[in-house]
Each structure stands twice: as structure tokens, then as C-alpha cells.
């Protein structure tokens, strides 16, 4: 295809002056008749890779998309730009479908969006020569190795058999190596060219904090970003509503968004956000797919996501315009346990649990977080990124053996029957009711850690949990208990390295200089 013609079409229908680096290469491969697998982060510009060829190819392009709710928006957007497009799904009447078939017959349509469930319906209307290109959006849905497996997608393997000479292009924002292989295997495109864009989004800062007093931390975070749009992702509908209500009470324009709301209500919330009539969306992961808002300046994860793919996709909604944007993830053990339960009840338990473990390791890391993330997506970087909390403020380690011994022996003497709050109260020699009631002032370690603040104790104990000396018994009122490994510290004098905890003042200074 001529360069001139490609550019003119890009300008005429999409309004852009030039292609992004990978887009051009992919489009050439499509015209050359190859099968293609495209891995590009959200916002990378995947759509053009099949929409533009669709305009220039002689017959129709089929687009398989899992999200019926988004099909209409996409088709409306294309139609508004003068692209002859339509969608077909089970929500339509027969007469509506007939109308579409008539347009296919007359060769009036360039793009047809189809839900995977509705493929059979169109089968009889299409013969091999009638389809110029098949695009499979959100292609990871075909793989149970992916994070969003959809059973209806498994039928798509048949497309290549049915249309053997039609090039196929599979696109996704999220696929680790195992998933990539599986996509090609299941779609019967073993010789597909793979186009993998860099996942590095340098403009997104990465930060992880302990999920302690989350709301206060969020308030402080937003206080510095009064005019900037952002999303707060929560695990439950209830959480989204609570956080939104508390922020609204403080004068922020915040809305809750989740799958339990009515269709119209959801549309309104999205539009208010896109048009800057509201500032903050507190949402479950139902929010964001297909949202095209370029100036989202920050994303907070109130709860831990269930895997790094989801996390990366969600933070990726910030800073699509390329300007600096901030992301903050709260790490909490209660969340990990909740997610473990979800994973344990899922179909592919083993995969889900392994993915969760990687998520946890990321949150607890003491090395450049971006390296860990990119590594997960198969990209290896030599240098630290300089734009994550670890790079900006590398942890300083010190000999924490004594601190560890005090904490572990206190837990030992409380017989593993008390939660973190009481353990710290005993360590600090607190006189509060709970301590006195149980006569804990008699315990040998009572007051042994007076010189360390409450907040610091909390952080040290979390580190000891992360290293593996302490466990939280979630089903037993969050009692802290020793693991077998703790013995090495208590009885064999094994040394313990702890990371220094920045003072609140140091944290403030860091924030202000960002
Ligand atoms: P993805 O599907 O990969 O998430 P989209 O196809 O929705 O990404 O594109 C993301 C954004 O980038 C959209 O706002 C789109 O209009 C814009 N975009 C895509 N290609 C180009 C280009 N060549 N020049 C400028 N903007 C582009
Ligand atoms: Zn870094």
C-alpha cells in the first residue's frame, strides 16, 4: 500500500498526521497477508492497526470484541468519522440484523463488530472471499492462562479453518509469555508475526504503601492534586460507595462506579468524568475498559489487584497524554487473604494463585518496581527507572536483629493469641485497658520496645511478616503467630536485616519534591 494513501486515509478518517512507530509496521504486515499478534499497552493505539486497513481492503473486516456494552460506542465513534461500521450481537432484533446483512450484501460496510456468541449468525452470509480481515480484540480472553478468560472465546479457533486465506490479527494489552503462546495456539495461527510494543510507561510514577489509615493517606494525596482527575480502584462495591461518600463530604466531586448501577447511570458518571464535571471516580474494575480520557493524572489502588496484568492495565489509564502522572497502590494482608479466597474458588486456581503471589512480591519488593513489572511482561531493563518509590528513596538496611528478637519473643510470650495492636501495646509498655485486663504487664517483654514509636513498630512487624517470621491468622481474629523460621532468630541468634523507616517528615519532603 502506498505511503501517501495510508497517510491520507489516516488524516481523513482519524485526524492524525502520522503513525506511531509500531502501527505502520503492523499495517504493512496486514496488507502483506500475514497473521499477526499485537501486544500493546492500553492507550498504545491498537485500534488503528485494523481500522485503517479495513478502510482500504476490498471486502469487510470482522472485529470480534467481548464487550457488547462498548461495541455501540465504538461503532458510533467510527460512524461519526465517516467509517461505514455496524455491530451485531444478541441484544438486537431480527429485523435489525437483517438490515445489517443487507448492507453486507451490498458491500456497504467496512467494519462489522461481532460478539463471539453471535458468530454463527453471520456464518451463512459470509464466504471466504467476502472477509478481508479478521481482528480479535482483547485476544487474551481466549486463554485460561490470561486474567480474563471468556469461555465464548474458545470457539474462535474455528475462524482460521473457516476463512483459511483471510489474515487474522489478534490484539491485547496484557499477555505474559504463556498467554501469548496459548493465543496463537488456540487461534490456529502458529506463524503469526508478533509485534510487541514496549510496556514501559515512563511518565507513570509507581508507589506502594502499607494499607494503614488508607483514607487519611488518600485525602493527603488528593489534597495536593485538587484540580486533577483520578481514579480510585476498590475491590468491593461497598468500598467504592464509602470512599466516594467520604470524599464528597470533604467537598470533592467524587462518584462511585460499579456493575450494580443502572446502564444510564453508569453512562452519566462516565461522561461527567470524561468532561471534567467530576474529579474522582471510585470504581471497581468494571470501570475503565474503553474509557478514552487522556488527562487522568493519578490512579490509586485502595485494594490490591489480583494480578500484575490487571494492575498494569488499571494504572495505564493514567497519563495517556504522556504527561507525568502518579500511581499509588495500598498493600494490605487482609486484601491478600480475600484474593486468595477468590482465587481458590476459581476454575484455574493454580494459575490465579501464582499470579497473586507475583502481585504480592511486587508490592513487597525492595528493588526498582518498574524493573519487576517490565520483567513480568518479558522486557528486561539494565537501569533502575528513577520514577518509583524504591528508586527515589532506596531503602536503607540496618541490623534489626534486636528489634526482631523483641517482637518475636513478645509474640511467643503472648502465645500467638493476640493481634498486632496488642502486641505493639505490650512491646511499648502501654497501660491501656486491654493490656491491664489480661495482666500483660506481667509478661517478660512488657515495655521492652518503649523507645520505638507505635507507627514504626507497625512497619517493622509488617517487614517481619514479609520476610516470613510472622504469620497473621486471619480466621482467628488476626492473631500474630510465629512461623517455624522464627526459631532461627529466637533460639539460634540468626541476624535480621530490616529496612529503615522514613520519618513522617521525610515522607512529606519527598512528596513535595516530586
Ligand atoms: P488501545 O486500543 O491500544 O488502548 P486506542 O486505539 O484506543 O488504544 O488509542 C489510544 C489513543 O491514542 C486514542 O486516543 C487514539 O485516538 C490515539 N491514537 C492512536 N493512534 C494515534 C496516532 N497515530 N496519532 C495520534 N493519536 C493516536
Ligand atoms: Zn524504579
UniProtKB/TrEMBL annotation:
Catalytic activity entry: Couples ATP hydrolysis with the unwinding of duplex DNA by translocating in the 3'-5' direction
Q: Mind listing the UniProt keywords for this protein, alphabetically?
A: ATP-binding, DNA damage, DNA recombination, DNA repair, DNA-binding, Helicase, Hydrolase, Isomerase, Metal-binding, Nucleotide-binding, Zinc
Chain ranges of the Helicase ATP-binding domain: 27-193
Q: Name one GO molecular function term.
A: DNA binding
Q: A cellular component term (GO) from this record?
A: replisome
Q: What is its EC number?
A: 5.6.2.4
Residues in Helicase C-terminal domain copies: 217-359
Q: What class of enzyme is it?
A: isomerase
Q: Name the coenzymes or cofactors required.
A: Mg(2+); Zn(2+)
Superkingdom of origin organism: Bacteria
**What are its GO biological-process terms?**
DNA recombination; DNA repair; DNA replication; SOS response
Give the family from UniProt: Belongs to the helicase family. RecQ subfamily.
Q: What is the name of the protein in this document?
A: DNA helicase RecQ
This protein's species is Antarcticibacterium arcticum
Q: What is the lineage of its organism?
A: Bacteria, Pseudomonadati, Bacteroidota, Flavobacteriia, Flavobacteriales
Q: Which gene does this sequence derive from? A: recQ
Q: Which residues of the full protein are shown?
A: 1 to 514 of 703
Amino acid at each position: 500500500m502506498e505511503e501517501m494513501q495510508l497517510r491520507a486515509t489516516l488524516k481523513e478518517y482519524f485526524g492524525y498526521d502520522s503513525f506511531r512507530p509500531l502501527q505502520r509496521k503492523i499495517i504493512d504486515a496486514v496488507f502483506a497477508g500475514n497473521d499477526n499478534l499485537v501486544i500493546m499497552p492500553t492507550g498504545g493505539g491498537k485500534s488503528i492497526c485494523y481500522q485503517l486497513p479495513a478502510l482500504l481492503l476490498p471486502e469487510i473486516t470482522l472485529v470480534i470484541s467481548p464487550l457488547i456494552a462498548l461495541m455501540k460506542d465504538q461503532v458510533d465513534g467510527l460512524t461519526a468519522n465517516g467509517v461505514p461500521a455496524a455491530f451485531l450481537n444478541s441484544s438486537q432484533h431480527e429485523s435489525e440484523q437483517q438490515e445489517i446483512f443487507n448492507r453486507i450484501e451490498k458491500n456497504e460496510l467496512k467494519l462489522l463488530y461481532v460478539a463471539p456468541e453471535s458468530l454463527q449468525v453471520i456464518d451463512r452470509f459470509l464466504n471466504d472471499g467476502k472477509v478481508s480481515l479478521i481482528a480479535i480484540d482483547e485476544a487474551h480472553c481466549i486463554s485460561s492462562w490470561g486474567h480474563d478468560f471468556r469461555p465464548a472465546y474458545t470457539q474462535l479457533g474455528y475462524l482460521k479453518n473457516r476463512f483459511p486465506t483471510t489474515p487474522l490479527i489478534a490484539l491485547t494489552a496484557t499477555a505474559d509469555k504463556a498467554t501469548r503462546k496459548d493465543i496463537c495456539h488456540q487461534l490456529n495461527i502458529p506463524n503469526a508475526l508478533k509485534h510487541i510494543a514496549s510496556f514501559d510507561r515512563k511518565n507513570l510514577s509507581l508507589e506502594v504503601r502499607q494499607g494503614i489509615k488508607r483514607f487519611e493517606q488518600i485525602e493527603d494525596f488528593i489534597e495536593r492534586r485538587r484540580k486533577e482527575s483520578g481514579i480510585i480502584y476498590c475491590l468491593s462495591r461497598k468500598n467504592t460507595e464509602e470512599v466516594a461518600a467520604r470524599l464528597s463530604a470533604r467537598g470533592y466531586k467524587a462518584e462511585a462506579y460499579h456493575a450494580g448501577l443502572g446502564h444510564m447511570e453508569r453512562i452519566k458518571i462516565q461522561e461527567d468524568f470524561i468532561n471534567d464535571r467530576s474529579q474522582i471516580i471510585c470504581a471497581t474494575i468494571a470501570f475503565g475498559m474503553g474509557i478514552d480520557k487522556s488527562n487522568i493524572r493519578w490512579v490509586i489502588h485502595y485494594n490490591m489487584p489480583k494480578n500484575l496484568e490487571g494492575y498494569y492495565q488499571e494504572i495505564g489509564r493514567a497519563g495517556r497524554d504522556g504527561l507525568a502522572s502518579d500511581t499509588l497502590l495500598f498493600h494490605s494482608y487482609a486484601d491478600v487473604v480475600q484474593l486468595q479466597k477468590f482465587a481458590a474458588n476459581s476454575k484455574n486456581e493454580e494459575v490465579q494463585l501464582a499470579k497473586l503471589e507475583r502481585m504480592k512480591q511486587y508490592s513487597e519488593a525492595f528493588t526498582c518496581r518498574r524493573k519487576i513489572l517490565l520483567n513480568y511482561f518479558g522486557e528486561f531493563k539494565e537501569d533502575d527507572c528513577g520514577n518509583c518509590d524504591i528508586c527515589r528513596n532506596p531503602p536503607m538496611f540496618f541490623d534489626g536483629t534486636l528489634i526482631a528478637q523483641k517482637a518475636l519473643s513478645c509474640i511467643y510470650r503472648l502465645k500467638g493469641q493476640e493481634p498486632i495492636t496488642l502486641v505493639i501495646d505490650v512491646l511499648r509498655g502501654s497501660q491501656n485497658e486491654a493490656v491491664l485486663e489480661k495482666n500483660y504487664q506481667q509478661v517478660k517483654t512488657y515495655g521492652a520496645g518503649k523507645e520505638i514509636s507505635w507507627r514504626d513498630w507497625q512497619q517493622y512487624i509488617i517487614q517481619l511478616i514479609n520476610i516470613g517470621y510472622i504469620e497473621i491468622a486471619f480466621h482467628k481474629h488476626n492473631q500474630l503467630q510465629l512461623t517455624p523460621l522464627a526459631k532461627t532468630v529466637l533460639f539460634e541468634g540468626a541476624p535480621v536485616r530490616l529496612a529503615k523507616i522514613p520519618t513522617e517528615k521525610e515522607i512529606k519532603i519527598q512528596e513535595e519534591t516530586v
